[in-house]
Structure formats: C-alpha cells, structure tokens
Write a structure and sequence with these properties.
Blueprint lengths: L14 H11 L23 H4 L7 H16 L15 H9 L4 H18 L6 H6 L3 H18 L2
C-alpha cells in the first residue's frame, strides 16, 4: 500500500499578531514568571500507623460476655445460687449484671454461652444454670473464653 502525502505550504505565523490578540482577550495579564529551578521535593510527612489501620468495634454480644467474665473475675464465681452471700455470682447472674437488663445482647450472649457449653460438655445441657452448677470453675471459665472468642470472630 502506498500512501502519498501531499505537501502543503503553511503560512508563517506572526507572533506579534498573536500577542495583540491575547492582550485583547486578557487586557491585564499576569506577568509570566521566569522559569526557576524545581524545588527539592519535601520530605514526606510520616503518617502514624494507627491512622492507617481499620478500627474494629466490639459487638454488643462480645461486650456483654467480656463484661460478665470481668464481673466474675472481680466478684467471684459461685454455683447453686444466682448471688451468694459474699456477692459472687453464677454465670447467668454475671450475664444479668453485665447486660443491665434482659435485652437482645443479654439473650444472644446467653445463647452463645450455652451453645459453647454444649460444644465442650455435651448436648444434654438445657440451661446455663444447670450447666454452671455441674462444672468446675476452670471448666466454666474455658466456656466463657471460647464464647468470647466466637463472638469476636463473628463480630457480634
């Protein structure tokens, strides 16, 4: 394939004419700055690492479980009663203290705790108090910690 380029004669551009036309469009132009040497790039401003990490909020179930376990750690754990004479509580008593009322977080935290108890100690447990009363403090704590980890993982 042959391509033929036709040569055209261009008219010389009169620079003075262009300057006059631009002055008419912009009668008071800003003076054109003289080119200067480029400035050295500024050192980057360090960004704190915490500003770049996403924040993770604690869900209401995780918070209720964590607060209830902290309550047990502070006031003590007991069996066979909601609250004993020294102020220690059973698992359901700690949940009630942490939640403040029988709200959704309280019910969901209780269901998760009972589900974890069944995972670790068999399906026969129908209620938190029945499970709480038949296990040692270490076994109960193990269930609490696993339930908190699950709530954290589920972000609830």
């Amino acid at each position: 394939m042959n391509t033929h380029t036709q040569t055209t004669d261009f008219t010389h551009v009169d620079q003075d004419l262009y300057e006059k036309a631009f002055r008419l469009l912009d009668p008071d132009p800003d003076p054109i700055p003289e080119p200067t040497a480029p400035a050295a790039p500024a050192a980057p401003t360090p960004v704190p690492l915490t500003a770049t990490l996403p924040m993770r909020l604690t869900g209401p179930v995780e918070k209720t479980l964590t607060d209830a376990l902290a309550f047990l750690d502070t006031h003590g754990w007991t069996r066979y009663s909601l609250i004993n004479t020294q102020g220690a509580r059973c698992s359901i008593g700690a949940l009630r203290a942490a939640a403040g009322s029988r709200n959704t977080a309280y019910r969901d935290a209780g269901n998760l705790l009972l589900d974890e108890a069944r995972r670790q100690h068999g399906k026969k447990w129908q209620t938190i108090p029945s499970w709480n009363d038949c296990h040692s403090g270490a076994e109960v704590r193990s269930v609490w910690e696993a339930a908190i980890r699950r709530a954290h993982h589920l972000n609830i």
